[in-house]
Specification:
The longest helix has 15 residues. The protein has one domain: Immunoglobulin-like. It has 197 residues and is mainly β. Strands 1, 2, 3, 4, 5, 6, 7, 8, 9, 10 and 11 form an eleven-stranded mixed beta sheet that branches.
């Protein structure tokens, strides 16, 4: 085999293999995170309609059913918003993330996450969607967790940012992380405890 033919074959093999580079275009993030929580309500402006428990429940159910969610620069995220207002997003890239919620009749609301480590689970309960942002109605319950082979939760010493709030990143026992792939159940949807007589 002559040298020119050998070089041509090597060049073709290198081109076919991509030279070890990742393909161009969007792809699934390495060390993806999960983001879970629930929406309590959406700020749609003044509403003069007659309100009862039933009409409010129906309004919210229709509002949540029509809510879309997407993440900037992450086209392959799975999950969404349930009609209960609960949301679950998987395969979210770590780092700095902007999650946009678009509810019917309301301006887009953005949940901004910062410094989220890879493989973390971000739990954001009780959010109110507002123009361009979210209000955390229970900020003390926001969590950023990392699974670890330990017996008791412990801080990593690192901090993340969730909707402008500084949140400690916690090392969490693996058996306490089994819920990270499930839609959370908002308190309004939990069954009341039976009373014992």
């Amino acid at each position: 085999m002559n040298a020119k033919r050998f070089i041509l074959i090597l060049a073709l093999l290198a081109a076919a293999c991509g030279g070890g580079k990742e393909p161009a275009g969007p792809h699934v993030a390495r060390d993806p995170i999960s983001v879970r929580g629930w929406i309590v309500d959406v700020d749609t402006g003044p509403n003069n309609a007659y309100h009862t428990i039933e009409t409010e429940a129906a309004r919210k159910q229709n509002l949540f059913r029509g809510t879309n969610v997407w993440i900037e620069n992450a086209p392959y995220v799975s999950g969404g918003v349930a009609e209960t207002g609960a949301f679950l997003l998987l395969d979210v890239p770590p780092g700095n993330v902007t999650i946009t919620f678009s509810a019917p009749g309301a301006p887009a609301a953005r949940l901004v996450l910062g410094n989220i480590p890879g493989n973390a689970d971000v739990f954001v309960p009780a959010m109110m969607l507002k123009r361009d942002g979210v209000a955390l109605l229970d900020p003390a319950s926001v969590k950023v967790r990392l699974a670890d082979n330990i017996d008791k939760a412990a801080p990593t010493g690192a901090f993340a940012t969730v909707a402008g709030q500084r949140v400690p990143v916690m090392r969490t026992p693996i058996n306490q992380m089994i819920d990270r792939l499930d839609y959370p159940t908002p308190p309004s949807m939990q069954a009341p405890l039976a009373t014992v007589k």
